[in-house]
Specification:
globular, single chain, alpha/beta, Rossmann fold
Length: 222
């Protein structure tokens, strides 16, 4: 394999109330979220991985540790692949953000610029640059082979935007459901082939949106 095949997998469902902004808050997975990741990892059995990475937040570590153990590897945890830091909006629903930060809520609903900031949190531009640098480091270490990354919805979106050359505004256009898979082939000369976006590895899929079961032949190709 003369290219990097990158498996980007979002963490499973958490115990947090739906639609809450949890970025750096270290929330636990629900039992359903654990099952989602266990089925995802089981679907990858038999594939040889060169490395398994995860964000250092436990909702991402769970799936990363499962796959690393299955692949006979050590999990490489890093805060560089954390979700966007929502600052004062951590733990809030969109409705509460609209009440407390009405201007920010308008930007979230229809961002007009390419960069905005959560109060005492990250700007979307800084987040994009953080993920870009982390991705470059990963690609330098693994110019070829199979690598899995368990992280977050924002990270998956940022990696898709970075590899496609999209703006911060366009970055938020991708749906990224719990335990979903983005599968990318990244070539050393800058070539790119995106094989799956927001797909699922489990037997039934985990959400009504998305393409459902994705046990595709591309998972087995060299």
């Amino acid at each position: 394999m003369d290219f990097l095949r990158l498996f980007c997998i979002r963490h499973g469902q958490t115990l947090a109330t739906p639609n809450i902004f949890n970025g750096w808050t270290d929330v636990d997975l629900s039992e359903e979220g654990k099952r989602q990741l266990e089925e995802s990892v089981a679907a990858l059995k038999g594939l040889v991985f060169d490395a398994v990475y995860s964000s250092d937040l436990k909702r991402a570590v769970y799936g990363g540790r499962l796959l690393a153990q299955q692949a006979g590897l050590e999990l490489e945890k890093t805060e560089k692949f954390r979700e966007l830091n929502f600052g004062d909006c951590e733990g809030l629903t969109f409705g509460k953000i609209k009440e407390l930060f009405p201007t920010l809520a308008e930007e979230l609903a229809a961002p007009k610029g390419t960069d905005f900031q959560f109060p005492n949190g990250e700007t979307t531009g800084n987040f994009r640059r953080r993920i870009s640098e982390a991705l470059k480091e990963l690609m330098a270490r693994h110019p070829s082979g199979r690598v899995a990354l368990f992280s977050h919805s924002g990270v998956g979106r940022a990696i898709l935007a970075e590899t496609l050359g999209l703006t911060e505004h366009q970055m938020w256009s991708f749906e990224q459901d719990h335990a979903s898979l983005n599968l990318l082939d990244i070539y050393p000369n800058g070539g790119l082939r995106i094989r799956v976006v927001n797909g699922f590895l489990g037997p039934l899929g985990y959400h009504q949106s998305g393409p459902g079961y994705q046990r595709l032949t591309v998972l087995d190709e060299s």
